Amino acid sequence: MADAPHNGRRRPPPPPAIGSIQDAPAGWENNLEAIELARFAVAEHNAKANALLEFETLVKARQQLVAGFMHYFTIEVKEGGVKKLFEAKVWVKTWENFKGLVEFKPAA
Predict the structure, then answer these.
(1) How far is CA 62 from the centre of its chain?
(2) Looking at the record, which segments are called Disordered (predicted)?
(3) Per-residue model confidence as pLDDT tens digits over 46-76
(4) What residues are paired with 59 via a beta bridge?
């Protein structure tokens, strides 16, 4: 009963279990922070692979509580005018001001 009132307030949902991959909160695909992380993933991939992918939209977001958060994104990009889907993993440790692209690959 995470939503049951408690002293006139709603209880927050329980934190994600450490290590489990879970869907991001509803609407996270439209959140500016999530979109910026997805754009970062595309830019990092382009720099490392000498590619020219263009970010289109963040399709799906999941997250995992690790030492920070591992974000799992499904991203729609354009490559030479053709839309394609890619999966990206971005690791964020805010207390260290760190974010890094862990994986970027075509969606299965």
Answers:
(1) 6
(2) 1-23
(3) 999 999 999 999 999 999 888 888 999 999 9
(4) none
- CATH fold of 5-106, please? Nuclear Transport Factor 2; Chain: A, (3.10.450)
Angle, CA of 77, 30 and 4, to the nearest 5°: 145
- pTM, full prediction: 0.80
Q: Which residues, in sequence order, are bridge partners of residue 85?
A: 76
38 phi/psi in degrees, rounded to 5 = -65, -40
Question: Domain locations in the chain?
Answer: 5-106
In order of 20, 52, 72, the CA distances from 23 in angstroms are: 10, 29, 9
Q: Which secondary-structure segment (H or E) carries 46?
A: helix 32-49
Coil/strand/helix, residue 29: helix
Token pair 């500016």 in the structure block, residue: 32
Tokens matching residue 94: 């805010």
